[in-house]
Design brief:
The complex is a heterodimer of chains A (151) and B (127). Chain A is built from three helices and seven strands. Chain A is α+β, with helices and mostly antiparallel strands. In chain A, strand 6 and strand 7 form a beta hairpin. The relative contact order of chain A is 0.27. Chain B has 127 residues and is an alpha/beta fold. The chains are: A alpha+beta (151), B alpha/beta (127). Chains A and B meet through helix 1, helix 2 and helix 3 of A and helix 1 of B.
Chain lengths: 151, 127
């Protein structure tokens, strides 16, 4: 039987590694939690095409976006990052998560540049979530999905 | 020492800048391979280029092939820093002339260890 997508434990381990390497405080990245509030939602996606096809989507609430951006760009705790900085930081986060998801699956395949939305991502109708991970960081929600062709 | 950091993400350039600046290095940044080549054509001769693979305008692999094709830039050490982790991609980059390959996400220590391997930083000696 072929593997459709990384398992939730594999994806959680990958997120832990990304967080501890680039963002910090891996112990605070906890499994579970409510979905991010749509009114303060950011989404970042990358697509993978080739031997294996998927979209990797990150949904993050404002508190997570601001904290990730501060950590990655070296901003002070009381500094409020601008929209361009937030877009850049979570786009790179999606790039890294997507690239590592790609490495878990059969190749060769190609990773797109990241696309960032201030709001929920419109998932193409032919895709469905094969892995759907709800996490929280310092109490703020974060969702990571691997969406693959449903047929 | 001088590092040219080539990545379309300002966040990633910032992370890499802080790592090499911690060694006392000067840095220059470029958002894609073409912008990096423009720096070299203008006379910048860095000791090291840290190079992302997937970038708009010119990707990191093309940048490596262009640098390696020009004898003026033979002394520059090239290190890929990328999410591309398929074996075939790594082999391609090294065959094109990259000296080292680091897969994102990385720790500062991973970059520093690679610099030591490349002779760009003193090796720590274990007691």
């Amino acid at each position: 039987m072929s593997v459709v997508a990384p398992t939730a434990p594999d994806l959680a381990a990958l997120l832990d590694e990304v967080w501890s390497s680039l963002v910090g405080a891996p112990d605070e990245l906890a499994l579970g939690g409510p979905p991010p509030d749509c009114s303060t939602l950011w989404s970042a996606t990358v697509t993978i095409t080739g031997e294996w096809r998927a979209m990797v989507s990150l949904d993050l609430g404002d508190p997570v976006v601001l904290a990730v951006t501060r950590a990655m760009l070296g901003f002070a705790e009381d500094e409020v990052p601008d929209v361009a900085s937030c877009t850049d930081a979570i786009g790179e986060l999606a790039n890294i998560v997507g690239g590592n998801v790609k490495s878990l699956m059969p190749g060769p395949s190609v990773l797109s540049l990241p696309v960032v939305f201030h709001g929920p991502v419109q998932v193409p109708s032919e895709l469905a979530a094969s892995t759907d991970l709800h996490l929280s960081w310092y109490g703020a929600p974060l969702r990571v999905r691997v969406l693959t062709p449903s047929s | 020492m001088h590092a040219l950091i080539i990545d379309d993400s300002r966040a990633m350039r910032s992370i890499l800048r802080r790592i090499v600046a911690g060694l006392g290095w000067e840095t220059t940044e470029a958002g894609d391979g073409q912008a990096a080549l423009d720096h070299l054509e203008a006379g910048l001769l860095p000791d090291l280029c840290l190079i992302d693979w997937n970038m708009p305008v010119m990707d990191g692999y093309t940048f490596v092939t262009r640098v390696r094709a020009d004898p003026r830039w033979r002394a520059i050490t090239l290190m890929m820093v990328t999410t591309e982790s398929e074996h075939g991609q790594i082999v391609r980059a090294l065959a094109a002339g990259a000296h080292e390959y680091v897969i994102k996400p990385f720790t500062a220590d991973a970059i520093l260890d690679k610099l030591a391997l490349l002779g760009l930083r003193d090796q720590e000696v274990s007691a």
